[in-house]
Amino acid sequence: MLGGRLAARTLLDYKHRDIAVIAGPAALADNVARIDGFMRELEAEGIDTRKVWMMESDFSPQGGWSAAKALIDSGTKCTALFCANDEMAVGALAYFQEAGISVPRDLSVIGYDDTPSAAFSAPRLTSVHMPWREMTLNGLNALLNRCYDLHRPVTRTFPVSVTLRASLAKGPSESAAGRTRSRKK
Q1: What single-letter DSSP state applies at residue 49?
Q2: Which of 32, 37, 77, 181 suits a disulfide with 1, CB 3.0-4.6 Å?
Q3: Closest by alpha carbon to 121, among 130, 109, 132, 129?
Q4: pLDDT tens profile 40-77
């Protein structure tokens, strides 16, 4: 849940309020926690989450591609997109590039997991950092302790953060948004 909150807080701190979401499978508890934390943080800032465009996908690049296409085809106006994992975010980035949508100039994108591919996508992906290496080593230590009655140290809490990269830009300022609206009248 904390990672989802951090993702939302990052977008909000960058002045994004029109945000879309590509969620992972609703049957997976970790996805549910990510999305729940994300939505709670938006609600705490007064954003009506019932109006947030959201599509469930399958944690794959193809799923991210398809959901990004559905977002654009829907005509939904947004300045930022949260993807519940980096694989979907990389697929979304690929779709946006092919569709002529500039990330982050036209749309900021944030992923989740901070996988190695996030650092090498184009543009480099801002992502919620999960310390997978440390988590894996501690899981192995716990297993070895249990199987062989060892006493290796095991940590059960890990720091979660956001790795800022090129896929995130400041959203429109309220004064700029107001000027845009007044020109359309």
Answers
A1: G
A2: 37
A3: 109
A4: 999 999 999 999 999 999 999 999 999 999 999 999 99
Q: 13-49 burial, b if ≥16 CB within 10 A, otherwise e?
A: ebbbbbbbbbbbeeeeebbbebbebbbebbeeeebeb
Which helix (H) or strand (E) covers residue 109, if one does? strand 108-113
CA distance 72 to 20: 11
pTM (two decimals): 0.88
**The tokens 């959901």 sit on which residue?**
67
Six-digit token string for 141? 């230590």
Tokens of residue 157, six digits = 């809490």
Give first-to-last CA distance, the chain, whole Å.
Answer: 42
Residue 8: name the closest of 47, 58, 55, 51 by CA. 47
Residue 174 has a pLDDT of 54
Give the model confidence (pLDDT) of 2-18 as tens digits.
999 999 999 999 999 99
Nearest CA among 11, 67, 14 for reference residue 42: 11
